[in-house]
Amino acid sequence: MPVPLDWLLAQPALGLRLLAGSSDGVEVEWAHAIELVDPSPWLAGGELILTTGLRMPRSVAEQAAYVDRLAAHGTAGLAFGVGIRWAEVPRGLVDRCSAVGLPLLEVPLPTPFIAITQAVAQRVADDRERGLQRVVRLQQSLTRTTLREGVPGLVRALAKALDAAVVVVDDAGGLVARSSGATALVGLVRSVVTATIHPAKALLLDVPDDPGLELHALAGRAGREGWLAVRGLDRSVPESRIVLNHAISLATLSLDEPTELRDARAELGAAALGLVLDSPGSVPVSSLLTRFGFGAVDELVVLFVDAEGWTSEGGVAAGTAATSPAISAWLEGIPHLAARRHGGLAVAVPSRAAEPAVHAVTTNLTGRLADAVVGVSDPVPAHSAADALAAARRAATAARGVGINVGRARDLALEGVLADPELRLRLGELTRPVLDRLCADPAATEQDLVRTLTAYLDHEGSWERASRALGVHRHTLRNRIAKVEALTGLSLQVPGNRLVLSLALATMDASG
Questions:
Q1: What does each C-alpha distance from 176 to 311, 336, 366 come to in angstroms?
Q2: What's domain 132-255's superfamily in CATH?
Q3: Domain 421-508 falls in which CATH fold?
Q4: Which residues form the PucR C-terminal helix-turn-helix domain (predicted)?
Q5: Considering the domain 259-415 in this protein, what is its CATH number?
Q6: Which of these, 452, 445, 451, 436, lies nearest to 487 by C-alpha position?
Q7: What is the pLDDT of residue 319?
Q8: What's the pLDDT at 499?
């Protein structure tokens, strides 16, 4: 750690005086006494040369040459001790130092050179001690933040500490967390991570096109958990590297929890959400939610993540992307509950965290499930979570119908109608008998007729799209719809009948 020359000049015990050049911004790596006429072969740059001029030539030209040699080797300055051979600093040195801008200091006779060297050494030691103390404080702060806020909090704190952009992704490139302003970096990191299969033991990836970017592996017990990327790290500051390495360890520990614990937590959250959705009157919902990080007065927003073929063995159900543990990794730092519902995934979050949650889910689904859509409910009280899920499902269906990734219940006209509880109840009373006739027949369960009818209506009577959504052949779909018409006594070719059935399904979703 270099010592500012201004600091040395400001030490009253040394009594140094600047005679030529400027001390502004000059840093001293070390102070060393040397009486050679040509010390340049032994200089590394940054030294403050201490001399009493014992071998200093009398010739002005030779004195100028001496200064030129020091300047050429990047010397920080020349400190000339007076009172031994020279009563005052030679004029030739003063003039040449002024000409080339090399700081020239006068050292009074009472000041021993060892005092200057000791002052520099003590300042270097003090700076290192302060640097280590800063590192320890930062490490403690990063640890506390990680315990409270998980990897997202760690990333924000690390970016601030290093004044750098920071991104953490899982091993498949899914976003875990990013610092403010690092949106563009996410895409680059994802492309590098997914471009090829990296050796399991690779701990650092080079990015030739971006030398300022470092990609560090988060190597867990059973394998690599992901990558931490940092751009803009000041590599000249050793403490920055120590802080970064500590953050890498914290991120690894956060992501590398035992699979059994991760799965158990996801199962517990799924069970809790099941209670909130199915039996809100049988449990103290608010108390239950507070155990999962929700505020006591938080309203909920429910997300419904839907992908065609979701339940097929080769798809998401096999664990490739949107299982509950994976969602939990994407939503780290955001209170949430997730459970498999209706062939998709239901996720409940506090309304205050809805937008970050939607962003995290959609960002991670991009490139993994091209056909995935997310439906988002309006904020509702916790006891109305089932209604919110129904609204989110309708929003997801509407989004798929118009070819967008995110659908919001507030954008659906029907949601405004059904938001009135009295009207919703009355519509349910009027339309429920139609569905009762359908559900009473054993074929309703055997042939999944309610889900078939829902898909058919959601896809506006399109045999192709509805059959693809259900994962069945068009002929199978036609046979099932014919059975629905026979049981309900309503032809689906009549618009009014389709409206009645749509309202019946919409008002029974909360209990279905």
A1: 25, 15, 13
A2: GAF domain (3.30.450.40)
A3: Arc Repressor Mutant, subunit A (1.10.10)
A4: 449-506
A5: 3.30.70
A6: 436
A7: 38
A8: 80
Tokens in use for 153?
């909090």
- Do the beta carbons of residue 392 and residue 400 sit within 8 Å? no
Q: What is the C-alpha separation between 259 and 236, in angstroms, rounded?
A: 39
pLDDT at 161: 93
Looking only at the bridges linking them, the beta strands covering 213-219 and 17-20 are unpaired
Mean pLDDT, consecutive 10-residue stretches, the chain (512 aa), reads: 93 95 94 93 93 94 96 96 94 96 96 95 91 90 91 94 92 85 87 70 75 88 85 86 94 81 79 85 78 80 77 37 60 83 89 88 72 89 88 85 83 64 72 80 75 84 84 88 86 83 72 41
C-alpha dihedral sign at 161, 162, 166, 170: negative
Q: What is the pLDDT of residue 132?
A: 87
Tokens 């006594």 belong to 489
The region, left, alpha or beta by phi > 0 then psi within -120 to 50, assigned to residue 164 is: beta
- Rounded to 5 degrees, what are φ and ψ at 2? -70, 155
Asked if 183 and 287 touch (Cβ cutoff 8 Å), the reply is: no
Contact criterion met (CB below 8 Å) for 230 and 244: yes
What stretch(es) of the chain map to CATH 1.10.10.2840? Answer: 421-508
Pick the CATH number of 3-111 from 3.30.230.10, 3.20.20.70, 3.40.190.10, 3.40.1390.20: 3.40.1390.20
Q: Measure the CA–CA gap between 5 and 508, rounded to whole angstroms.
A: 80
Torsion on CA atoms 60, 61, 67, 70, rounded to nearest 10:
-150
Q: From the centroid of its chain, how far is CA 170?
A: 11
pLDDT at residue 397, rounded to an integer: 81
Dihedral of alpha carbons 497, 503, 505, 507, sign: negative
According to the model, what pLDDT value does residue 136 have?
Answer: 92
